[in-house]
């Protein structure tokens, strides 16, 4: 159908971008799991893959921007669409940064804290699935708007769960007998992990905003 | 113009009388536009003709005048109800629709633009005819050229003072989003069509203002700017009254002077 061809192309690109974000986060989880297993060589390979996927996501984002610049959608909607894409891109960016943090600064995770770090990594970076579902639901029209908003709510709940785990882990770090500098380093490491779910929540909020604007 | 004048006054009006009514109603509409009030040209013309009728001393068809005035009151209420119902209906459909929300908004935006163009086209066709009709019958200039000049004048009016009224209707009454603007356009067009089926002359501006208020009411009464509404209502009352008064006075002055 010729009608709204450019607009449909933008939707396809946003879905492709969301796919890349999900792929980026799942590769980042694998990277961090491998790092915690102390297989640094494989973790480096996976981190490189994460970087490449994030670069591909960036390229798609630029393509979306070009399509919007050349007249896809009404000017009033372009800002909302681009903000949504940018917020999804931030999620992938934060996952890449998290991998970079681990492989660049090589934080030493004590064995007793490893299961807790693994839990927070899986929960924080596992936020990609509901985020992608919410985006697909809204753009592809595979479910009513309420379902899309439900997925957004799920992301909020997940983010709160991550915050709770972060609080507990942070307490454990600072109550441990580690050096203060080591504690601070682990705290920074934790910040990098939870940033992913924080950005995912921002993205869900942006999606909610776009959805609300479409309602009367 | 002839149609309106024949309906309101019982005798044929002279061209001088018609010209006075046109000038005065045009002047009143210009003042209202200057103060950003979306007033109706037809209200001004009806007032102007009634004023001329009183000045000439001819019988005025008050029953017709009352029917027209009633339509000015009923029409906004009808479009308020229409847009309120349509807003809820569209909201219900949008929540259950299984196609992309952004794409729907984009489509609604284009439909709103197209319906605005249609309303503007209808207004241009009608009002250009009203404005130049009496002169066209004098045979000074070819009617097509006269209509072209009238059209250019309407375009100049839109460019120079249109923005003020646009702000009042689009932002002043209630902030409109894309679906809201679409509903307002559709409701006003439907309301005008419904009145024309029953042969009642209706004001497009009152229909549109009513429709915008209806959309705003879906968000609650507080979403409507009471100050703007009162200004518009005062403008609607004053427009025919001032047009009638000024036509009466100007015609009297002209007849005394001549």
Note down, in words, how this protein is organized.
The complex is a heterodimer of chains A (216) and B (258). With 216 residues, chain A is an all-alpha fold. Chain A has helices at 5-36, 40-69, 75-105, 114-125, 128-140, 145-175, 180-214. The mean pLDDT of chain A is 91. Chain B has one domain (2-257). Chain B is built from 9 helices and no strands. The chains are: A mainly alpha (216), B mainly alpha (258). Chains A and B meet through α1, α3, α5 and α7 of A and α4, α5 and α7 of B.
Q: Could you name the key traits of this structure?
A:
heterodimer, A: 216 residues, mainly alpha, Methane Monooxygenase Hydroxylase, Chain G, domain 1, 85% helix, 0% strand, B: 258 residues, 9 helices
Task: Give a topology summary.
The complex is a heterodimer of chains A (216) and B (258).
Chain A: H1 5-36, H2 40-69, H3 75-105, H4 114-125, H5 128-140, H6 145-175, H7 180-214
Chain B: H1 2-8, H2 15-34, H3 41-56, H4 62-96, H5 101-138, H6 143-172, H7 178-197, H8 204-217, H9 226-257
Helix pairs in contact in B: 2-3, 2-9, 3-9, 4-7, 4-8, 5-6, 5-7, 7-8
Summarize the model shown:
The complex is a heterodimer of chains A (about 220) and B (about 260). Chain A has about 220 residues and is mainly α.
